[in-house]
Amino acid sequence: MPIAPEPSRLVFQKTERALMKLSSGQDAESVHGFRTTSLRLQTLLEELIPARDRNQKKLLKLLARIRKRAGKVRDLDVQLGALRSLKVPQEPRRKTQLMHDLIELRVKHENKLRKMLNKEMIRDLRGRLRQASKQLKPERGRDPLTVAQAMLAQIERPAGPVTADVLHRYRVVIKRARYAAEFAPKSAEAGRFVTQLKALQDAVGPWHDWLTLTQTAAKKIGDVDQSSLVAALDRVTGSKFRHAVAAVSASPAIPGRPIQTKMIPARPMQDRTNQSALESVPVSVSAKPSPKPRTQTLAPPAGTESAA
User: How far is 205 from 215, CA to CA, in rounded Å?
Assistant: First the structure.
C-alpha cells in the first residue's frame, strides 16, 4: 500500500504554518503544534522515503534543532499542567514554590527558543520545506502500515515485569508508528490501527508527564519521606504507570506475547523506608486534562529518540 499523496503533501504546508506560528509566539499550543507536526514530517522522510537528498537531510537537521529546544519548553508546560491538576491539602507553600520555579524555568527556555528562531533560519527553513515538498515522490515510498507494524515489532518484549525503561521505549515508538500509519491511504484497516495507537498514546503519555514532574519535585524538595507533596506525586505516577502497562498489554496493536502485568514503576527516589507514613495523604487529580504529552526528561535508551 503506497503513501497517500494528500497527507504527504499537506505535512510540509502544516510544518511551515506551525513554524511561522512558533516564531510569532512560544505559547503552549504553538510549541506543541510545531513539535508534533515536525515529527510527522521527520517520520515521513526517515521511515517511509527510501533515500533522502541533501536538502531533505539539512531540513531534518534544522527542524530537529528547533524541536529539541522547543521540547524543553514543552516539558515544562506538561509539568505545569499536571501540577495544577493535583489537589492536595498538604504543603501548599511548597506546591506554590514549585509552580513558580517551573514558570521561571519555562521563561528561560522560551527566551532561548525565541532567540534561535531568527529571520535567517526561518527563511532558510521555509525554502527547504517548499523544495522538499516539490521533490517528494510518495509513490516510491514504503508501505506506511507495514513500516508502522515493523517498528512496534522491533521492541524487545521483557521476560519479566515491565520497567520504566521498557515503557519509555514503547512510548517513543508508539508515537512514531502512529505518525507513519497516518500516511496510509484511508481504509478500515488503517483507521482501526491508528485508533488503537492513539489510545495507547493517551494511556502511556500521561504516565511520562507525571514521572517527569515527580522527578523534578524530588530534586527541588526532597524524597517521599521528606515531603507529602512528593509522596502524592509519586502515588499518582505509580497509578498512571499501572494504567499504561495494562493498556500496552491489552492492545491488539502490539505484536507478540502479552506483557507481564506485575509492574515495576520508575521511582525518582531510592530511599522509601518511610513511605508508609505518607500513604494516608489524600490525593485527587482534577478532571481538567493537562496538555497533550511530550516529554523528554526521562533519558531514552541508546539509539532511540525522545519523543516529541
Answer: 16
